[in-house]
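Regression test case RT-17, inverse folding.

Input:
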């Protein structure tokens, strides 16, 4: 998929910049061949004032975030409650095609599911799920289908806000799902100072999918212990420890002890 053009849409005092294929703005990049290598000039882009085409005379509120999906459709998250009283506005989540045409919109307070008091980030993962972040007092991450059906909530308001919590956030900034391991990485960095990792399907930290004994083995492996050392420490056979290791890697979507160590450090487990 070519990601070769850039759109700038200035709306309600905010600018949305999204990389798109089959895009709208024209790149003026020039490439000069010379000697053994080539020198590529810095691309220059032109604003397309007609993009996007917002229907019904709606005005966008403060644009919190934008993302592109696998079809190069652009998803815009805006704070619809921030428009002036004399303006009409649409739903906080809006989808536009590559030509800037409005496709659909959904979300907001009163939609029958949780919704953040202050919208912040939007991300479309490799499975086509839409993740919405909130960094007001509610401190939550929400998962939806592209049609706006509510799937899952991670984080709740009124909870203790600390870097040690594995279930709640403090003003999370953005998310990313890593397809290789199906892990959800949350940049929990405005209030807390960390990246925290969850299983993208269950919403649980990956290590919470393990049994108590698997978790014991996981921590020792992540800490650099060998199979024989763990077997001796836990009074198990080396074959049993190897079996536990295989189960742990499968449940957590990992392939090596190094990945376990990285995860354990990121989640402050060792």
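Golden output:
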């Amino acid at each position: 998929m070519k990601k070769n053009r850039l759109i700038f849409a200035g709306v309600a005092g905010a600018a949305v910049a999204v990389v798109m294929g089959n895009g709208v703005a024209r790149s003026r990049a020039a490439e000069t061949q010379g000697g053994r290598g080539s020198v590529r000039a810095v691309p220059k882009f032109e604003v397309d004032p007609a993009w996007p085409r917002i229907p019904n005379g709606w005005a966008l509120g403060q644009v919190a975030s934008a993302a592109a999906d696998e079809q190069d459709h652009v998803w815009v998250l805006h704070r619809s409650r921030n428009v002036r009283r004399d303006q009409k506005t649409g739903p906080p989540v809006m989808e536009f095609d590559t030509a800037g045409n409005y496709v659909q919109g959904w979300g907001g307070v009163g939609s029958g599911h949780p919704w953040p008091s202050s919208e912040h980030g939007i991300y479309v993962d490799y499975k086509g799920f839409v993740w919405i972040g909130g960094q007001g007092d509610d401190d939550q991450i929400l998962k939806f289908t592209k049609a706006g059906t509510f799937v899952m909530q991670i984080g709740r308001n009124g909870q203790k806000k600390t870097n040690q919590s594995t279930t709640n956030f403090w003003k999370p900034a953005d998310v990313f799902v890593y397809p290789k391991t199906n892990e959800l990485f949350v940049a929990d960095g405005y209030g807390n100072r960390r990246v925290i990792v969850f299983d993208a399907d269950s919403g649980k930290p990956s290590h919470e999918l393990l049994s108590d004994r698997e978790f014991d083995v996981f921590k020792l492996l992540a800490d650099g212990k060998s199979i024989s050392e763990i077997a001796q420490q836990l009074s198990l056979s080396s074959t049993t420890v190897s079996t536990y290791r295989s189960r742990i890697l499968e449940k957590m979507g990992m392939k090596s002890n190094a990945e376990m160590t990285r995860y354990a450090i990121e989640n402050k487990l060792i």
